[in-house]
Amino acid sequence: MTKKYEFSNEEIKGITRMCKENKNKNVDRRLRAVFLYSKGEKRAVIAEKTGYSPSYVSRLIGKFRKKGLAALTENNYLGNNRNMSLEEEREFLNNFKVKAEKGNIVSTNEIKIAYEKKVGHRIGGGQIYRVLKRNKWRTLMPRSKHPKKASTEAIEASKKLTLLSKTGWKKKETMEL
User: Fold this and answer.
1) pTM score, two decimals?
2) Last residue of a domain, one of 73, 97, 123
3) Which of 41, 100, 104, 150 could pair covalently with 154 via S-S, beta carbons 3.0-4.6 A apart?
4) Per-residue pLDDT for 65 more than 60?
């Protein structure tokens, strides 16, 4: 059986002071869990009172032992992990913008490969689209028609044949002849 961690009077005073100063409800729950543990409550009872699991209460106590109050009061949100600042992204995409303005086709795969070289590691497929969206890039098609598109005369002739076959006029014309 492991030895229960003993809290010093300074630690208990620090937890109490932080509870009074704190305005974040998530931090308050963590502080309350450690405070209850310092008063001798069991982990299962603390879990019921705070809404945490007993194993999370143990992790909170371990964090407190290693890092002190800072471990309980900091928020470890993992969002917004950009590899470059917005200015660096604009500068990076400017090379591709110049290429596109000259009439060349710029693909996202080409941008992704260059981005990975610049940051020094691989990135997910969706990340490059978020970079482009952040910098207000949009999809442009360089040509208005397909190179193998039929002529307008052939298209019109096809439309006439389709119209005749749908209405049954074609059959009547052949019978009269």
Assistant:
1) 0.44
2) 73
3) 150
4) yes
83 secondary structure, DSSP code: S
Claim to verify: residue 50 and residue 23 sit in the same structural domain: yes
CB 130 within 8 A of CB 115: no
d(CA 122, CA 12): 46
Query: In whole angstroms, how large is the CA radius of gyration of the chain?
Result: 34
pLDDT (0 to 100) of residue 14: 87
Residue in the block written with tokens 């949009």 = 138
Question: Rounded mean pLDDT of the chain?
Answer: 80
Place of tokens 């590691």: 121
In this prediction, residue 117 carries a pLDDT of: 93
Judged by DSSP in three states, 20 sits in helix
At residue 135, the 3 state secondary structure works out as coil
- Which letter does DSSP use for residue 77 in this model? -
Q: Supply the range of the domain harboring residue 124.
A: 86-134
Are residue 21 and residue 58 in the same domain, yes or no?
yes
